[in-house]
Amino acid sequence: GQQVMQIPQYQHVQEGEDFTTYCNSSTTLSNIQWYKQRPGGHPVFLIQLVKSGEVKKQKRLTFQFGEAKKNSSLHITATQTTDVGTYFCTPIGGSNYKLTFGKGTLLTVNP
Amino acid sequence: EAGVAQSPRYKIIEKRQSVAFWCNPISGHATLYWYQQILGQGPKLLIQFQNNGVVDDSQLPKDRFSAERLKGVDSTLKIQPAKLEDSAVYLCASSLRQWRMNTEAFFGQGTRLTVV
């Protein structure tokens, strides 16, 4: 399966600060999905990126897919306590289109 | 639209006992996944079904874990015998996969297994 490295593994911010997490792959990705998992909860789909250079926005969240389709990022503007959770990027690809998760980035927000 | 249903929500068993988890995916979803999530880690894919066929079970410990998807709808995951390290949340997810394009996966609430 396709592997990605997600950084940072942990991020603690003050409420109102911005936050970014990055996914990097050594191989070209077919597409990539982002999920959020709140503490004690289950992963919830945020978005899917398919096209090279794609940028999508959801309110304070901005998702990017690199031109070479080897990296992706999620940027949150002016974090809120409701943003707390683990953010996962999941590469989609391979003959079976497996949905695999890495360690993700755990975001904590200090009010 | 009803979500992915899982049962039970919680289970406590002794090591060497057996346990089974049940999942009912969203109606019409061809792809079904079982994940194991140990505290502090990301979900680990155990098995992926496409309709009633297995497309990936490379990380399923087949000496003790088994899974089936009855008639391409409901699915059960069994552990026999359980070990202490099997303590985790077991997540079921489903997606409406279209040809060459994955759609979003919907997750159930999970089953929290504690092996003592």
Characterization of the model:
The complex is a heterodimer of chains A (111) and B (116). Chain A has no helices and eleven strands. Chain A has strands spanning 4-7, 10-14, 19-25, 31-37, 44-49, 55-58, 61-65, 71-76, 85-93, 98-99, 105-110. In chain A, strands 2, 4, 5, 9, 10 and 11 form a six-stranded mixed beta sheet that branches. Chain A is globular and about 40 Å long. Chain B is mostly beta strands and 116 residues long. In chain B, a hairpin with a 2-residue loop joins strand 5 and strand 6. In chain B, the strands form two sheets. In chain B, strands 2, 4, 5, 6, 9, 10 and 11 form a seven-stranded mixed beta sheet that branches.
Radius of gyration of chain A: 13 Å
Shape of chain A: globular
Overall form of chain B: globular
- Beta fraction of chain A: over 45%
The major β-sheet of chain A equals: 6 strands, mixed
Structural class based on helices, strands and sheet pairing of chain B: mainly beta
Strand portion of chain B: over 45%
Compile the SSE list and pairings.
The complex is a heterodimer of chains A (111) and B (116).
Chain A: E1 4-7, E2 10-14, E3 19-25, E4 31-37, E5 44-49, E6 55-58, E7 61-65, E8 71-76, E9 85-93, E10 98-99, E11 105-110
Parallel strand pairs in A: 2-11
Antiparallel strand pairs in A: 1-3, 3-8, 4-5, 4-9, 6-7, 7-8, 9-10, 9-11
Chain B: E1 5-7, E2 10-13, E3 19-24, E4 31-37, E5 44-50, E6 53-56, E7 65-69, E8 75-79, E9 88-95, E10 105-107, E11 111-115
Parallel strand pairs in B: 2-11
Antiparallel strand pairs in B: 1-3, 3-8, 4-5, 4-9, 5-6, 7-8, 9-10, 9-11
